[in-house]
Design a protein that fits this description.
Elements: E1 2-11, E2 16-25, E3 28-33, E4 40-43, E5 48-51, E6 53-59, H1 74-78, H2 84-89, H3 94-110, E7 113-119, H4 123-134, E8 140-145, H5 157-168, E9 173-174, H6 184-197, E10 200-205, H7 209-219, H8 223-229, E11 234-237, H9 245-252, E12 255-258, H10 260-265, H11 273-278, E13 284-285, E14 288-289, H12 297-312, H13 318-324, E15 346-350, H14 357-364, E16 370-375, E17 381-382
Parallel strand pairs: 1-4, 1-5, 6-7, 6-14, 7-8, 8-9, 9-10, 10-11, 11-12, 12-13
Antiparallel strand pairs: 1-2, 2-3, 5-15, 15-16, 16-17
Length: 383
């Protein structure tokens, strides 16, 4: 049992700043108040106590080819099976992939990340490699698998079903690359099988304008609308929304993940995050491919806050932006990383630089400003 004392605590799903002590016992918050005090006392002296970060979208399998392919198009860089990433993955030893993934996960741990959602290439073997790499690292991966049988103009649907069943025995869900690589028949099988098993189905949509226009021309629907209509749980990017795309997202209550730094690196656009928030959508933030971005949520938060005001001409509430990296996943059962009595103890303690705790974290904090990481999922560690 211990007490985090004298912190500015970002409490609950609203991240309301309150001056409070937090008593933790057996990995769970048992008391919160200015006077609560039991066990070992850790005086954090007006530092900020924030829920641990959740990285909503990564590809950490390409960690071994950092910064390769810079300035290439989206398709040339990451489209299966001939993108730079996929060629590299098919021509490297497993140990190289595993070691690089380990390094990336430790980077995330040191940056205050307790959970991440990974699109894992390489089929069943790829999922198992990530499970192997994450063993004994204090971080929780949500692993979404895929299989080469999904792709092609006329896939064998029986093979697709078999691959999905095998993947869902070891993975947390299924995540094909995008509608440029799979048809609606494959999409329907993926979402139905995931729903039946209570697993996650996810897909990239609307990342580029060309993909959106191609989808409209071929199917009379945008990729975003196809993702909604196919009943995917999670849609990643939604960068180039068109028409009523955002309204369909809001009505569907689908989990939306945005990756602004990745979109900027790939010159694919700036997501209409301001409009999403106005419509009641609760997006998650992700850092995307490690080959093009560091998995650093501090960088993602600051870039996101500032690029939206520059491009869209209106300021995002910094509290709403911080929610995208902390508590918004709680609405989609990805984690319970919010701070309140009876909740798991999963939070970070950060240096405080200003009177606005949200801007202090987004504008000024770096990895070196994390004073403590509390993660109940790993032996109640404080490190």
């Amino acid at each position: 049992m211990y007490t985090i004392a004298n912190g500015i605590v970002l409490k609950g799903l609203d991240l309301a700043p309150v001056k409070s002590n937090i008593v933790v016992d057996d990995g769970r918050i048992i008391d919160m108040s200015p006077d609560a005090c039991e066990g070992k006392i850790i005086d954090v002296n007006n530092s900020i106590v924030c829920p641990s970060f959740f990285n909503g979208h990564t590809h950490i399998g390409d960690s071994f080819i950092k910064d390769e392919g810079y300035s290439l198009s989206l398709s040339d860089l990451v489209k299966p099976p001939n993108g730079v990433k996929h060629k590299a993955l098919s021509n490297v030893d497993d140990d190289v992939i595993v070691d690089a993934m380990k390094d990336t996960m430790w980077d995330m741990v040191n940056n205050g990340i307790s959970h991440f959602v990974d699109y894992r290439e390489g089929g069943l073997k790829g999922v198992k490699l990530l499970k192997k790499a994450s063993k004994d690292i204090p971080i929780s991966p949500v692993i979404l698998g895929r299989d080469d049988s999904f792709y092609g103009d006329d896939p064998d649907l029986s093979k697709v079903k078999t691959a999905i069943r095998k993947l869902l025995k070891v993975a947390d869900g299924i995540a094909p690359s995008g509608f440029g690589e799979i048809g609606d028949d494959v999409a329907d099988i993926i979402t139905c099988e995931c729903m039946r098993k209570g697993k996650i189905s996810s897909i990239h949509v609307g990342e580029s304008r060309s993909n959106q226009f191609d989808s409209l021309e071929r199917f009379s629907k945008s990729e975003i609308r196809r993702g909604v209509d196919s009943n995917f749980n999670q849609l990643v990017h939604c960068t180039n929304s068109m028409g009523d795309d955002l309204y369909s997202l809001a009505k569907s209550n689908v989990n939306v993940v945005v990756c602004p730094r990745s979109n900027a690196t790939l010159n694919s656009g700036v997501v209409k995050l301001n409009e999403m928030v106005d419509l009641g959508i609760r997006p998650l933030l992700g850092t995307d491919n490690v080959m093009i971005n560091s998995p650093n949520m501090f960088r993602e938060l600051e870039f996101t806050l500032k690029i939206m005001s520059l491009v869209h001409g209106s300021y995002l509430n910094p509290c709403d932006v911080l929610k995208m990296a902390t508590v918004n996943p709680c609405y989609f059962n990805f984690s319970k990383s919010f701070i309140d009595i009876s909740q798991p103890a999963q939070f970070i303690v950060l240096n405080n630089f200003s009177k606005n705790p949200y801007l202090s974290i987004i504008n000024r904090c770096e990895t070196k400003n994390i004073l403590y990481t509390i993660n109940r999922d790993y032996n109640n560690d404080i490190f």
